[in-house]
Amino acid sequence: MSADRATLGVRDRGSEPMPVTWAAMKDFTERRGPGDPDEIWFVEHPPVFTLGLAGDAAHVLDPGGIEVVRTDRGGQVTYHGPGQLVCYVLLDLKRRGLDVRGLVETLESSVVATAAEYGIDAYPRRDAPGVYVDGRKLAAIGLRVRRGCSYHGLAFNIAMDLAPYERIDPCGFAGLPVTQLSALADVGGIAEVRPVFERNLKRLLGA
Fold first, then answer.
1. CATH 3.30.930.10 fits 8-205, yes or no
2. Which of 30, 67, 151, 155 has the fewest C-beta atoms lying within 10 Å of its C-beta?
3. Which pTM value belongs to this model?
4. Which pLDDT tens digit goes with each residue over 57-104?
5. CA 128 from chain center: how many Å?
6. From CA 111, how far away is CA 139, in angstroms rounded?
7. C-alpha distances in angstroms, 160 versus 43, 46, 190?
8. Which residues pair with 143 in a beta bridge?
9. Are 78 and 152 a contacting pair, CB within 8 Å?
């Protein structure tokens, strides 16, 4: 029996090294069957740069003491660290009626809707997936699809140290400025923002 679209499990994995979460996502995707419900995972990672499957290492300008991990997601290089809301989406795309572009747009719309609740006018860019405010990147997206199911997902900057972004070309764009929600509005950090984002994402996913 297949799970329905309304069923969406939520896991809070706390603070966890990115390679640990990545291995768990791959295992979940390999093991899942049509009767297993979709899940979204929330996590914060210790400082790490991640490269997409075809990412160009030249975009990592000066990693310093921060680990660089090449993953199997799409996209170029990005940074994860404390104070960033990372949401991984482990979804059966056919069940959700989505293709990859549709999932990207759903994730983008979830960030846009969340930012709007704080009075911020955020927007996606078709030429560079993610969400922006006044040309500055607020959230990055990178996905992988295996056996018709997605994993990886979205990184939403909330209240973090943005300095490591100066050590890379964010998402492969030299000099691309980045921002975070706490620089744009009065927010209380991830604990405040996550329920707002989760509600918007669930609504857009039909859960």
1. yes
2. 30
3. 0.95
4. 999 999 999 999 999 999 999 999 999 999 999 999 999 999 999 999
5. 14
6. 8
7. 14, 11, 10
8. 152
9. no
